[in-house]
Fold Calcium-activated potassium channel subunit beta-4.
Amino acid sequence: MAKIRVSYEYSEAEDRSIRLGLFLIACGVLSLFILCLCWLNPALQSLRSRPANCTVLSVRRLDERFECVFTCGADCRGTSLYPCLQIFVNNSASGAAALLHYDEQQLLLNPKCSYVPKCERDNQKMREEILRLQHYWSEEGSNQSFTCFFNPQRRPDDVLWQRSHDASVFLHCVLWPMLSLLVGTLIVLLTVCARSLAVRAEAIQKRKFS
């Protein structure tokens, strides 16, 4: 008995489904690479900082001012100057004095200062913000013990008040790319399986009438 051959050609709708699935797979792989490179590595560095207890030793404001760049529109850009506030704390993890920073991003932005204000055109606004922080840490914060974060391998002389990232970064870096990969793979597999079943059904139908 001759074997019945059935053409195996995808319809336009099936071809679109496969292309959509392949597009989602490619997006998942690309986004996984980009997110892991841009978010996951900095997050791992931030989460390696272990908690410690800190108490304020001294608070001082330097005479030196630092430049920052502000934007106030599409064609509006300029530079301002902000004062440098330094908060030295006693780090219980190392037993030594360390410079407190708001978070790791500000530490990398200006390792000399404890806090980098949002850049404003008006220098006075930034100065007043620094003065408020100086008053808080000199008066209220000086009598309190608080949790800070310390990374002895990277910066043993600095501590962080807050971490820049938390464990939720891992969820976002892995969940959404994997979801895109899974949906794309399911679309391709279901389309191929549906077409294969349709071809088999057509072959069986032809055998009945041959």
Q: What stands out?
A: Residues 15 and 191 are 9 Å apart (CA to CA).
